Give the backbone structure.
Amino acid sequence: MARSVLTNDDLFLVTSAFAQGTALARWTDGDLAAALGHLYVLQHSPCLRFTAGAMDAAAANGHLAVVQWLMAHRPEDRSPHAMAAAAENNQLAVVAWLHAQGLGSRAAMDGAAGRGHLAMLLTAGDMDAAAEKGHLGVVQWLHAHRAEGCTTAAMDYAACGGHLDVVRWLAAERPEGCTSQALLYAAINGHLPVVQFLCGDPRLGAPANVQRAIHLSRKNGHGHVAAWLHQLLRRASLSCLSS
């Protein structure tokens, strides 16, 4: 009960107006208040304790005002991982603001590396993660403003999730491409539009790969995908015979 009150701005205003300060003095979890986006609590609770996880959680949840407050008032708890957390969760406004502040800059990342915080660095995996979740806006922003790029996993996982817009964009704008797994992932999950797009690539639409996709789509109850792929093979076979 106390936690739910202390992390609700309106209830906090009412209770703190009549309280003698005991509950406020006991409240120390700054990370939770930041994660929930309760800026008023951060501004008025004198005994809060923070870790770098506060900024990570606020960034991941899109609480830009909280991130800004932490940057200004808790500089010792700044986290180079915050931008990655925001990017993975489609919080583009937070990503852009942190980038403008230089938190995810090369200098900041080099500093983190020098301190041994390798897990906190932006990597190609961040664009991969954004693509997997279908966050095209974040993928495009990272492409335009960052140099880390992505891997073939970006398109593979976007295909797995049925994110056709992301798959199309990656195919057109990024050089990494995908692996043969992209077609199989899409077929397994019944994403026919993605399957149709990927089969436009002769490498992915090779008969052996298509046969495997047919088997996997049938096995997972996606008969419409299997039927379309079967027709694709049939047309290819007839074309070869006629030529």
